[in-house]
Amino acid sequence: MRSPWPGDTMRACSSMYSRLTRWLVSLPPTLFLLVFFVAPSLIMIVASFRFPGDYGGLAPLVADGHWQVTLETYRFFFSDFIYTEIFIKSFGVALATTLICILLAYPLAWLITRSPKRHRDLMVLLAILPFASNFLIRIYAWMIILGPQAALARVVNGLLASFGLEPVSLLFSPFAVLVGMVYVHLPFMILPLYTNLDRHDPVLLDAAQDLGANAWRRFWRITWPLSLPGIYSGSALVFIPVLGMFAIPEILGGTGDILIGNLIKDQFLGTRDWPFGSTLSIMLTMAVLGCAGLAAWFARPRGGRHA
Amino acid sequence: MALLELCNLSRRFGDLVAVDDVSLSIESGEFVTLLGPSGCGKTTLLRMIAGFELPDSGRILLDGRDLVDTPPEKRPLNTVFQSYALFPHMSVAENVAFPLELAGKDPATVKARVREALADVHLEDKAAAYPHELSGGQKQRVALARGLVNRPRLLLLDEPLAALDAKLREEMQHELIDLQREVGITFVFVTHAQDEALALSHRIAVMNQGRVEQFDEPSKIYGFPQNRFVADFIGNTNMLGVEVIEVASDHLRLAVPGLGEIVAPAREDARAGQRGWFAVRPEQVSIGTRHDAELKNHFFGKVRDFIYVGNVTTYTVELANGTQLEALLPNSAPGRARFFEAGDEVTVAWRHDAGVFLHV
Fold it and tell me: What is the enclosing helix (H) or strand (E) of A186?
């Protein structure tokens, strides 16, 4: 039966049309994520329960009519404290990197928002300019800067010698790893912080001052709490990649400075123990999700809408 | 001694003189409005009192003490900003508690004073709400409560009603008057809306191009404008070019070219032979068909057109010399909204004590 109202048909058509559009628009990314994220994740989960192949890779899943699955890799992970220790160390490095990034990025982001409008884009560009050159080359450059023959090491060791202390190696040390981590991830903290600070209404600071707040209190009571969303997103952008980073510890760190990323990489490319590599990877993902959940709980909105 | 004394304040921005040699004296408990068109310097003046701008010259005395070296956070006065400037990450109660906490009040006092301040603005039930959950009028009230909670010597209000719709604005006007009377704190209010200024203030400072044109009670500002700017800016007015013929102790005789003579209220500083303007309000001009002997000033004319706005009708009458005069007639007789039509021959007249003579 035809609707007596011509508008109904049209409305039905347009709602169907908009639903169709929504599907068409979201289909490519959905497919992409299914194929390149969900499927590999599932493969990885399954792989963590399998046996390693004789020459690396994985042993067949079904042999002699039996499923070849085991919890061995998980038992192995928890049986040796060294893995937990590396996890803890990695989280420590990630946390330290994030905190140092906040300390360095905050004044810089603040400075950019306080600069005349015509300079701001240039300053943001300068902050992200390092991305224009290759990541590995920039890390190797730090090898030269921190190297034993470089001016920096000479000055530091000269100072130490004047206090009668033993010379130290800057390169291949936890210090070098931290420097590299901070250097690479700093822009990821600057950008969200700048975007956040830029949206603050300056009249709020006037109001706070008018009500009796000095510069210090204006910062702690107004600017800082309003910038927390920027801190949170910047921290996520720094913390998580640092956890999985293997190139920087490998190039700048010493033998004792390996992190989870290196451990996982070694399982696939060195030891060729794919099931254990998968397990480590899953444990890392779980730990990150746990952290994210904890952070979300800490940063849960308490009714206030920020900025 | 006046509560707030502004002495020869000036402030320029490059070539622009925002505030030009302003002197004002505001008494304790007064509701004073700075009124003027945008760019007249009223906001700059307010920001100088608050301390956000420093004067190039002049002094700001509060209780006789010079404020120029006191930063905004140390001045015993608060501001209500046009955009309210409520802290979005704090609840209503936290916003209002903010100045008390900064002043180092103990938690019990803070709690009691916050409750009191919210009661003053009828927002007791919104203490836990956040600014984004409030309506414009409610935000306005929180800003007022926050500004008043620490009992400042002076509350500055920067166009606080501008963002509200007409009905709410009128409501808030009544609330502002009541609130000011209740707390007894001196209000300095900035606006470009003359009806707001007339309705709220004890005294109005009309500002133009950085100067105070007139500082007086609303009825004096409206009834006896000191110069052409004030007469033009406040309300509607009829302006006739005139020349002074005679200066008497109780009246002036003025000549209107091509029309005749007007008897106007006396003005001490008028001199015979002087040219100037005669301003008379439309509601002071009566319109009729017969000559009314009681009214000394009357002229014949023809109705050009009229605007009916419900409670009154405004007629535009063209006089013999081509001058157009507005006369306002209240529509008090039921069913007789219109008395005259365009083209009708009429007389317009006004009392000898109506209107003012203004210098050029």
Answer: helix A174-198
Residue A89 domain flag? yes
Pick B88's closest partner by Cβ from A208, A217, A304: A304
Both B73 and B128 in one domain: the answer is yes
Q: Give me the number of domains chain A comprises.
A: 1
Look at residues B210, B231, B252 and tell me which one is the last residue of a structural domain. Answer: B231
pLDDT over 90 at B50, yes or no = yes
Instruction: Give the angle subtended at the CA of B8 by the CAs of B2 and B13, to the nearest 5°.
Output: 130
Q: Render pLDDT for B171-216 as a digit per residue (tens, 0 to 9).
A: 889 999 999 999 999 999 999 999 999 999 999 999 999 999 999 9
In a domain, A19, yes or no: no
- Chain A nearest-CA distance from B29, in A, is 21
Q: Does residue A61 form part of some domain?
A: no
Q: pLDDT tens across A149-197, in order?
A: 888 888 998 999 899 888 888 899 999 999 999 999 999 999 999 999 9
Given B231, B266, B284, the domain boundary residue is B231
Mark yes or no for CB contact B87/A207 under 8 Å.
yes
- Domain of B144, in residue numbers: 4-231
Start-end of H helices in A63-80: 72-79
Residue B43, chain A, CB below 8 Å: the answer is no
Alpha-carbon distance A178 to nearest alpha carbon in chain B (angstroms):
34
ipTM here: 0.85
- B88 & B202 share domain: yes
Q: Say if the Cβ atoms of B150 and A211 lie within 8 Å.
A: yes
Q: What is the CATH number of the domain that holds B185?
A: 3.40.50.300
Cβ–Cβ contact B132 with A under 8 A: yes
Q: What is the pTM of this model?
A: 0.82
Distance CA A227, CA A225 (A): 5
Angle subtended at Cα A233 by Cα A230 and Cα A237, rounded to the nearest 5 degrees: 130
Q: Where are the alpha helices (DSSP H) in chain B?
A: 42-50, 92-102, 107-120, 136-148, 166-183, 194-200, 218-223, 228-233
The A residues from 148 to 207 touching B (CB cutoff 8 Å) are 201, 203-204, 206-207
* CB–CB contact A305 B88 (8 Å): yes
The reply to whether B99 touches chain A by the CB within 8 Å rule is: yes
**Number of domains chain B is built from:** 2
Q: Is the dihedral of CA A162, A168, A170, A171 positive or negative?
A: positive
pLDDT tens-digit series, residues A110-141: 999 999 989 999 999 999 898 889 999 999 99
> In the β-sheet with B211-216, what is the strand arrangement from edge to edge?
B77-80, B154-158, B186-191, B31-35, B203-208, B211-216
Select from A203, A217, A304 the Cβ nearest to the Cβ of B102: A217
Could you report the per-residue pLDDT of A242-287, keeping only the tens digit for each? 998 999 999 999 888 889 999 999 999 888 899 999 999 999 999 8
Name the pairing type of β-strands B31-35 and A66-67: unpaired
